[in-house]
Amino acid sequence: MAAESSTSIAASTKAKTKAKKRYLRRKKERRKVREKQKPSATGTSKVDELEESDESDDGDDQDYRKEDVPVQSITQEDVGTESRPPKRRKTTEVSLAGTKNEVEPLNEDVTMDETEETARVVVHRTPTPSLPIFPLPALPNAPSKSALAIQGLDKALIDAEIVDPDVVIPIPAEGPDDGGSWLSEKMRKRLHESGITELFAVQTSLLPFLIPSNPQHRLYLSYQPIRDVCVSAPTGSGKTMAYVLPIIEVITLRSYFVAGLRITNQMLSSRVVTHLRALIVLPTRDLVTQVRETFEVLGKGRGLKVGTATGQHSFAHEQAQLMNELSSSLLGGSSKVDVLICTPGRLIDHLNGTPNFTLQHLRFLVIDEADRLLAQSFQDWLAQVLSATRMPAINADPRPLRPLYPRPDAVAPNMLPRIPYPHLPTFLTEVPESSCQKLLFSATLTRDPGKIAALQLRDPKYFVVQKRKETADEDHVLDVVMEKFSMPSTLQENMIVCESSQKPLTFLHLVFAQNVTDALVFTKSAESTTRLVRLFDFFQAEQTTHGDKPTLSVRAYSSDLPIGERKAILEQFRAQQIHILVCSDLISRGIDISHVSHVVSYDAPVDMRKYVHRVGRTARAGRAGCAWTLARYFKNMLKEADHFQQIKRLRVSEKDLTALTPAYEAALRHLKDVYTRS
Ligand SMILES: Nc1ncnc2c1ncn2[C@@H]1O[C@H](COP(=O)(O)OP(=O)(O)OP(=O)(O)O)[C@@H](O)[C@H]1O
């Protein structure tokens, strides 16, 4: 095979040589002929032309070429891009958004050579024109965290009015000018007599909103329904007066304007007969008593009749106190009181069991400590109360309807359509609405949309008393939504990190070394309350036998005690006859005792709301106060509420405790004896 192939190569080379020789010979002959024909001076160009045409047209030459390089006539280089049909290549671009865009190939002018035989494709690359610059796909500006958080929230909450807690306005004692307080002269005088000379922040916002400027229709606003109100303000910021003052003013006075000044006159009161105009619902009896006292102080000399219903007295006794008429059935109801302050349980009892007890004339429904009350589902009290304030559906009331002429004053306007005296209903007939304005108050107002929806609020207006930050309004709303509760600015908060076993001794150290008296001490249960008081008493007894320490009066206050005793203890504490009151969370809300300078959470509160209310028993109405929490694990709750930074963390050294240890150990032994015996 190898020999064969070498022979063929030799033969081909030989043939090539012969052809070349033949070509060269002919070329030589042609040159000779040309030499002969050559003119002497000119004609160079002609020869050149001939030579050129020879080279191009000479069949031999062509033959030669064909023979000479039959296969490699087009070199790789020649083929290049010219011979190949241009490929339409797809260019892929990845956009910023991550999607693939298919883009047309760059501009190429492709033309086919006219001589089809050669089948040559000539590609003329024209300079690529610059493409128009399209803007890069840009992501929209990301909304702020707070903007995202408020999405889907109740609009009323987003539009909450943020009230600066430092705002106060002086109350002029005399003269027709109310100084922007919206209070009558009579009321302003009364406030000054009670030592109140300025309005606190929450009051400055609420009073103008709650005391209507229109002197007419103050008790019944059936055709001008007013907005309901939700108020979130720190503990001790004066929320009680923010509703007590407008209630007294609206019920007892009627005002009119003279030369731009508000003139109020009790004789012009729109109150013709006594009806239940204001209902205040509170979670505990103690709070009912406290709010009643505020009404009595501020409403003195105004002829306002205030009643309470807490179950402290018999049902019959309460009925006699509240109702004028129990025997006959009255469509307009009957009441001896203008204002009723009550707990929800007893209120339901009267709604269901007291004849002529009606809420149809209510102008104000106040739910104080609203988050606590809304959490109580007792007999579905809220739904029952709300339905009692609305016009009952015709035929829903089993009592027979009697024609009443003339138009009865005793029936609320929203009840009138129920009375079968001749009306002329037209398409213009407007259905009267309940005139009841709902007011919700708390230092930890719920933002739970479900619970708020249950209140069927009418176009609610939110007031949130909290320090204004240098941030967007959304952030304030976010604080509201995220339940970041604001604290009194005069409160100093401390946490003493200690193990449970160290708590009793640490507490004794606080009392005897840090002078923590005039204090409320919160424990987790009634049982812990009693135990701590016993230990304290044993410890003091030990101390007194070994030295001359003055004796401190420490008492327990819990649900284990009879109501009468509880009341007496609270009175003694108010009178500073008791120095330390150890209690359960029974009085962690709302109780206002001005001299409380310390609050000790002996057992850490279970949630942030409880913490806010407990520590809020001190530092009230701008006074200074100190809160102490004894705990090992407490910071997570504070961190979640974004409140960790505000709390000073302290440790009590072993050394500080050694002086107290002997008496403490003796007290512990006594305590053990007591519990083993019982
Ligand atoms: N304008 C005022 N000037 C002086 N003292 C006031 C004023 N308003 C309220 N107070 C007093 O401030 C104290 C706290 O008020 P209040 O009990 O209404 O607080 P609160 O906001 O309801 O607190 P909490 O959330 O704990 O129930 C009370 O002793 C009250 O008399």
From TrEMBL:
What enzyme class is recorded for this protein? hydrolase
This protein's name: ATP-dependent RNA helicase
Residue ranges under compositional bias (Low complexity)? Answer: 1-14
CDD domains from the UniProt entry: DEADc_DDX51, SF2_C_DEAD
GO terms assigned for molecular function: ATP binding; hydrolase activity; RNA binding; RNA helicase activity
List its EC numbers: 3.6.4.13
Q: Which InterPro entries match?
A: DEAD/DEAH_box_helicase_dom, Helicase_ATP-bd, Helicase_C-like, P-loop_NTPase, RNA-helicase_DEAD-box_CS
Superkingdom, natural source:
Eukaryota
Compositionally skewed regions (Basic residues) per UniProt: 15-35
Q: Which Pfam families match?
A: DEAD (PF00270), Helicase_C (PF00271)
Q: Which reaction does it catalyse?
A: ATP + H2O = ADP + phosphate + H(+)
Domain Helicase ATP-binding, residue spans: 220-463
Where is the region Disordered?
Answer: 1-101
List, as start-end ranges, the regions of compositional bias called Acidic residues.
49-61
